[in-house]
Amino acid sequence: MSLMGVDVGTTGCKALVISDRGAVRAFSYREYPLLHPQPGRAELDPVEVWGSIEEVIAEAAGGTPGDPVHAIGVSVQGEATVPVDRECNHLHNFVITFDERTTEQSAWWEKTLGSSTLFEITGMPLHPMYSINKIMWFQQHMPKICDRTWKFLCMEDYVLMKLGAEPTIDYSLAARTMAFDLRRRDWSDFILNKAGVDRASLAQLKPSGTIAGSVSQRVARKLGVPGDTLAVTGGHDQCCGALGAGVIEEGMAMNATGTSDVLQPVFDEPMLGQAMLASNYCCYPHVKAGMHTCCAFNLTGGLLLRWYRDTFWQMEMREAARTGLDVYDVIVEGASQEPSPLYVLPHFVGSGTPTLDPRSSGAILGLTLSTTRQDVSRAMLDSLNYELKLNIDTLEEVGIPLRELRAVGGGAKSKRWLQMKADTFGIPVTSLQISEAACLGAALLAGTAAGAYASVDEGVSQVHATKRRA
Predict the structure, then answer these.
(1) Are residues 328 and 222 part of one domain?
(2) Last residue of a domain, one of 388, 412, 439
(3) pLDDT of 11
(4) Predicted confidence band at 347 (pLDDT cuts at 50, 70, 90)?
(5) What distance in Å separates the CA atoms of residue 397 and residue 208, rounded to the nearest whole number?
(6) Is the pLDDT of residue 466 over 60?
(7) CB-count burial class (<10 Å; 0-12, 13-18, 19+) for 174
(8) What distance in Å separates the CA atoms of residue 420 and residue 422, rounded to the nearest whole number?
(9) How far apart are the C-alpha atoms of 384 and 378, rounded to whole Å?
(10) Spatial separation of the C-alpha atoms in residues 145 and 138, rounded to whole Å
(11) How many CB atoms lie within 10 A of CB 86?
């Protein structure tokens, strides 16, 4: 049985097809542009996004002749929000996570309810990024669009709708709206009433790994999949990534190094104490039923290395393009063998957890005329590792100790960087056979819904750790 996981991110989407035994059969990727219609605003064009999703699904599905895709699970970015009408047409672009237009709404919540009350109900530390703020912004600034709006959708429910299923959102992504009652596993009528939002304007709620419907015949013909292909709830991309990395036990966490550098630990009981809130750690449902998770992160990660590459490694980029080498490998392998005499504060887009200060700026300290590029490269890598070490220590202080990390994303491909991380953290860092963990997690949820696995745990048994750094 072939199973597909689709991962819809901020700048691109992917589709991965696996067998029910965990073997990779096909993979496809497309990018789409991030739009900035005004300073501080960030949007995605639904036409561009859905067109790219269609392309990756069709391309990946075409790589499995003789064993068509049986079920599709969906992993997506959090918080992105779009209004749609009753004919399922979008009425605006997606407003994505780091769009800054909702600071006024966030300030209103602080004044009206306070961050402690919101955290106790939703598990989310107050922040402008959450979907409920975006919906409130539409209501206040675009009432004519709201008059035509049937549903306000996040990316998962939007994709499932476009596939032909009912707009359905899983618990992990619903929690990213700051309108979800963590304990009741339902939309919070209290929050919705305060915001003036009708629950009928939101998608139906289902657990991760639930069949939302089937791909419609019209869409199936275009995508090259059977008309009875199951459309399955997946979840927030960080949660799907953790599942795909085999993170389903306390003491484990996924480390995803992409645009940001993220730690995603899991735990059994909700963690809603003041220490969690003071450290800006959210608490929300994992895609494995009954478990919970949180995000600890450094906002830069790969973004910092991209800036460093684009600013100081232009010649090497041209050479890499000519020879087929990865310039990031050149940077990492060329970094100093010894700790750098420099100190880099990697807050180039503000700090991540535990401080979560958007006003914090980056810094490079200790430069002298004897500083080498190798010193700077090592300091850049060390700075990212130090930020994660800070979060590992803080997580232990709030009651979430870690004994092992599972590394995924672009940073997991570098043996040396993984070793540097393990040396800094003092705990093992494990890499995986399949680095596209979010796609894999979504595919495993699809397989569980389709009956290929008796449980998510059985599906995760297909994930095999291949290398350990100590």
Answers:
(1) no
(2) 388
(3) 87
(4) very high
(5) 30
(6) no
(7) buried
(8) 6
(9) 10
(10) 8
(11) 9
Report the alpha-carbon distance of residue 285 to residue 171 in Å, rounded. 6
Measured between alpha carbons, how far is 385 from 421 in angstroms, rounded to an integer?
6
DSSP code of 466? E
For 175, the token pair is 């929690």
Average pLDDT, the chain: 94
Residue 207 and residue 104 in one domain: yes
Question: Of 221, 239, 257, which one is at a domain's C-terminal end?
Answer: 239
Output DSSP code: residue 113: T
Q: What is the tens place of the pLDDT at every residue in 370-401?
A: 999 999 999 999 999 999 999 999 999 999 99
Name the one residue in this structure whose structure tokens are 């004519």: 144
Answer yes or no: is 39 within a domain. Answer: yes
- pLDDT value at 470 more than 50: no
* The dihedral sign for the CA sequence 402, 403, 408, 409: positive
Secondary structure in 3-state letters for 165-208: CCCEEEHHHHHCCCCEECCCCEECHHHHHHHCCCHHHCCEEECC
Place of tokens 């049985």: 1
CB-count exposure of residue 128 (10 Å: 0-12, 13-18, 19+): buried
Residue 242 sits at φ, ψ, to 5 deg, of -60, -45
Give the number of other CB atoms < 10 A from CB of residue 18. Answer: 27
pLDDT at 149 over 70: yes
CA separation for the pair 360, 267 (Å, rounded)? 30
User: What pTM value is reported for the model?
Assistant: 0.92
Query: Number of structural domains, the chain?
Result: 2
Chain centroid to Cα 268, Å, comes to 21
Domain residue limits at 46: 2-239
- Token digits of residue 436: 């596209």
Q: Are residues 235 and 308 in the same domain?
A: no
User: Which two three-digit tokens encode residue 169?
Assistant: 């959102």
